Amino acid sequence: MFIQGIVMRGIYFKVILIGITIACTQESYAGKRQCQPYLDKLRNVQSQQKQGHSLKRGESLNKQESKARNIWWKCEQGHLKKTHLSNKQKKQKKSKVPKQQRVTKASLTQMSKVSLKPFQMTAPLVVKSRYQGKQLQAWLLYYRQPKKCSRPKTTKQFAFCVEDRRNQQLAFEKSDATVNIK
Fold first, then answer.
1. How many distinct structural domains can be found in the chain?
2. Residue 130 contacts residue 152 (beta carbons within 8 Å)
């Protein structure tokens, strides 16, 4: 009978031990699942850091990574406040009224002032070049566009082309005293 009591205590002990183990693993699994969005955010920022970027962008990514890591670690440790919401949760919490239905007094007054024809003009549209007549012909003979300016591929090339054209215009105006700038 004594041996039977010891065996029963051992079985009770094992059952209790198994129950506690199951309860603890479920809590930790729930914690991992709850912190998964924060871990995903951290991994996303870390993958962006591995790609090429400027110094300013690198500093920004370092700050984002540090913040994401702190939030994830607080979540893992159970110290994260429940009010910390992700961007998706914030967007879902906002009012559910579509933007089309949101009307304010200011937008109503603006709508009443706007014409129904956005490009309706009362004055004729006149496009003039800098030079007219003989001056224009002289300019067209004088100006030589560099080959790389026919289709600039970068903003640096485009800026060079604009500056080159401006410099040639200044030189043309100095050489031709008949040019009247309008």
1. 2
2. no
Q: Do 11 and 78 fall within a single domain? A: yes
Residue range 141-172, pLDDT digits in tens:
999 999 999 988 899 999 999 999 999 999 99
Residue 159 lies in a domain: yes
pLDDT band at 33 (very low <50, low <70, confident <90, very high): confident
Provide the residue range defining the domain that includes 146: 134-175
Q: Which long-range contacts (CB under 8 A, 24 or more apart) does 42-48 make?
A: 42/68, 42/69, 42/72
Burial of 131 by CB count in 10 Å (0-12 exposed, 13-18 middle, 19+ buried)? buried
Residues 7 and 73 in one domain: yes
Mean pLDDT score across all residues of the chain: 77
**DSSP character string of 55-119:** HHHHHHHHHHHHHHHHHHHHHHHT-S-TT---HHHHHHHS--S-GGG---HHHHHHHHHS-SSTT
For residue 46, with 0-12 CB atoms within 10 Å meaning exposed, 13-18 middle and 19 or more buried, which class applies?
A: middle
